[in-house]
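Pilot study result, target chain (462 residues):
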Amino acid sequence: MNDYVRGSAWRVPVTACQPRPLSAFLSRNAQRRPASAIRSLLPLEQEPGMISLLAGKPNPATFPIEEIAVKVRLPDDASSPVVVAVTGDRLQKALQYGPTAGTPALVDWLAQLTSSLHGRPLPAQSSDSTKPWQLAVGNGSQDLIVKAFEVILDSGDTALLQSPTYPGVLPALCVGQVNTVAVESDEAGIRADALERMLARWDVDEKTSSLARPKLLYMVPTASNPTGTSTSLDRKRALLRLARKYDFLLFEDDPYYHLSFEEATPSLFALDGQDSDHDQGRVLRFESLSKVMSAGLRIGFVAGPSVLVDAINKYTATSHLQVSGVSQCVAIAVLEQMGHRGFLQHAARTADFYRRRRDAFERIAHEILRAEPPVAEWTSPGGGMFLWLRLLLPLNANTAEGDSFALISTQARRAGVLAVPGVAFLASSGGTSTYVRVSFSLIGEEDTAEAFRRLRRVILDL
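Predicted structure:
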């Protein structure tokens, strides 16, 4: 068995084959965090015959809300919305303090969907410690990702990040003083071959030899933000193999899973459960209802090994306690009305909606940005909401390709067009990028054309 040391840095041998217990991945903060004195006892209130003098719950008789009703467009007949009302006992529970991991009806509905889509048998109805995986609801998936970072990573630990990466995760890693190392990606997603070379040379390469070996790889496998590219099945298998060989976790952030314009490939979470010859605890999978149902509901969920999800729930219980019960009750009322089949129909139609917007957006981009002389190039996204434009900028002394930051932050803004410069998506600070991310989710065709004309003029005026 390989030796390992818990300390200020995560140290493992170059060829680590013996998997360590998942509890060894927990950060010092996670190991020190005590259980909530009150919330840890709340499940006992459900025992038959129990009389609870426990929690300081407000009396629902004082709540002025009598009903919550929403109109819902169902996929079978979107022209005739139906009213879904939340009343009675379900409403009282929604207005009251609720379970940390989420409303049981919503957790069960999402767990059944996850089991069906990813081929993972539902967790046994037993104590959490014996379940192969479990699911918890969060205040959006980013809430869960940030908490997962906190319960896994200590100051001085190392996290691998798909590059370019989603910038929303970077502040938490910066504040936590975590070392971040970029892993290349291309049109087929994250490059497993580049990662394998990096890991094999970790202790001798001057770029990594002073760093602790990585505890996790964070990636967006489907329609990655910002590139819109997806990681291929072969690469997913290779990444899982590397995670087992070098003993790190895979954070599978998949908010665009239902917004893919291409044929879906099995998720890392699915692949992790297929091979009975290996441990099935490498993947934490994060999903969200924001892109297909409502961003304002703030409903995300995580599925993964129980010991890791328990640590996230423990963090929630001692911070903001739970996700809004009202948001959860609205979400489950709508989802139950749709059913799993109806939800997937709605998701497919949503993906088609964005595919048509992409097509129109790209057509206008070709007409304006690729006109002679061309000022940008890109790979057509296979899903999501973005184009990742490589601007054809004049060269300067500081970079071989030019840098979009000043142009987008200053000249383009003065010209009346906003976009996100590529440096925002770099895994580490101090670099430059000739790229820019532009979104087609909301903008109309007339405004798209005018925005691209303004951007073109700014580039040509350099």
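One observation from the pilot: The two ends are 60 Å apart (CA to CA). A full batch analysis is planned for the follow-on phase.
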